Amino acid sequence: MPLSKQETQRQTILQFWRQGIRTAAKIHSLTKIPLRTIYRNLKKIKKTGDVKHRGGNGRISKITQKAAREIGQYIRRKPTITAKFIAAKLEDVGVNVSRSTVSRYLTSHGYKNALPLATPMLTPAHKHKRIEWAQNHMNDDWQNTLFSDETAFQLFRNTVRHWYKKQRPIRPIPKDRSKIFAWGGFCIRGKTSLFCFRGIMDGKFYTKILERQIPEVYSMLGDSWRLQQDNDPKHTSRVAKEFLKNNVPEVMDWPSNSPDLNPIENLWAIVKRNTELRRPKNLNELDVFLHEKWVKIPNNLLINLVNSMPQRCREVIDRNGERIPY
């Protein structure tokens, strides 16, 4: 039976060692074997005089309890570790498994490999304010609250994963990807219409949007309601404050850097994904698709999101002000 690639590399390194060629750099220059593999086997030769596996030759067909413990420790110490590197580390403790075996084990045990979600940084002061806010609002009646926000929708987003068997799908993306911005609001009784625009929003423009949208809110919630908005400078500008004072019954206080507390972020995520699946080719199509997806958001989802607010408050307190998984 022919030797495996790994065994061939080990035997090659051992032969060079016996011929007096004992530096990793020299062996690498002659063989192109990865330096990490050479260093690992040279260490083994110096310790045991050979490159044999501890516990015998032959690949272990499954992850043993010992290997499982080692894998858990590796990931806890270094979450960015690769399956290939884990397989190499396991070999050092006498467990000979392939990268694909490690990958299958990780997948079957609930591990996922993904980029960390980008999120605003929370300082100790932010966390304290979040806890304080959650304590003050945990028992609120959220049924008269309009949650609002604005976001950007980009053409040619590339965030939808694809299954493939042989060749990874390729999607050409232009260098210049234009955006549409949108403002929206929702409450337990429904949504405002989606206001899309292509310019820069300042405090004055923000009041123009509210002036157009507020009648819809009064029709849903009557004369006694409150507006939730974040602390973006355009929301807290002098012109915006003056408008809100004269036209909105109440404006909620809101902790800084806390998009996870605003349930409208869940709606934005749904609209972005569903719009991307339509693959709009230009801004006009993007505008049309955004309105279509916004209108189709079901009312039961709005109700569930509003009713999630007490739990969000509790989780902020339980997590000492840290980000919550919403």
From TrEMBL:
InterPro entries: Tc1-like_DDE_dom, Transpos_IS630-like, Transposase_5, Transposase_Tc1-like. One of its GO terms (molecular function) is DNA binding. Residues 69-139 form the Transposase Tc1-like domain. Residues 145-286 form the Tc1-like transposase DDE domain. It holds the Pfam family HTH_Tnp_Tc3_2. GO terms for biological process: DNA integration; DNA transposition. This is Transposable element tc3 transposase. It comes from Rhizophagus irregularis.
